[in-house]
Amino acid sequence: MLLKHFINLLEDCLGRRANKNMLPLQPGDVVETCADVDDLMRDTGFRPTIPVEEGIKRFVDWYRSYYGR
Questions:
Q1: pLDDT, tens digit, for every residue of 37-51?
Q2: pTM of the model
């Protein structure tokens, strides 16, 4: 999943646009990553069920509720 996707999700949930200064990739930047939760599921029996889109929405809702913003 790309960082732009996370930023867009946050912008949508917050109802405002981020001030972005897009720069070329820097040494050590990672273009895309994918979490591998197979070991987590095997060791704990936990299996993530909430899509990132819903998780970010829930986080923003919690943050606003907790901090009153």
A1: 899 889 999 888 999
A2: 0.71
Query: How would DSSP label each residue in 2-51?
Result: -HHHHHHHHHHHHTS-------PPPTT--S------HHHHHHH-----S-
* Signed CA dihedral, 48, 52, 54, 56: sign only: positive
Tokens in use for 68?
Answer: 């009153």
Terminus-to-terminus CA distance in the chain, angstroms?
28
Closest to 56 (Cα-Cα) out of 5, 13, 19: 13
